[in-house]
Amino acid sequence: MSDNRIEELADRVEMLAADLDDLMFDRLSEAVADGSTTRPVADKRLTQARRALEKAHQILRTLADSPGE
After folding, report:
1. Cβ density class 16-54: b for 16+ within 10 Å, e for less
2. Residue 66's closest CA among 1, 12, 3, 10?
3. CA 67 remoteness from chain centre
4. What is the mean pLDDT of residues 49-61?
5. How far apart are CA 62 and CA 22, in angstroms?
6. What is the distance between the alpha carbons of residues 6 and 56, in angstroms, rounded to a whole number?
7. Which of 10, 25, 18, 2 is nearest to 50 (CA)?
8. Distance between CA 64 and CA 39 in Å, rounded?
9. Separation between Cα atoms, residue 46 and residue 52, nearest integer Å
10. Phi and psi, residue 38, nearest 5°
11. For 11-49, how does the pLDDT look when each residue is reduced to its tens digit (9 = 90+)?
């Protein structure tokens, strides 16, 4: 896979992580607006997905920055 393609994938993963951040924030805001004092049920799983995307992003960036390895 070319370094350029890896960089493009890293960018896409980064955008997905940002979209997930927005979704998580929206869900938390909705829960607060509804008077909830507890974390939304799906928040833990969404946080896990966000961390997985961040890990993938870091790995892809490392690959893109280390051509030929």
Report:
1. ebeebeeebeebeeebeeeeeeeebeeeeebeebbeebe
2. 3
3. 24
4. 98
5. 26
6. 11
7. 18
8. 37
9. 10
10. -120, 160
11. 999 999 999 999 999 999 999 999 999 999 899 999 999
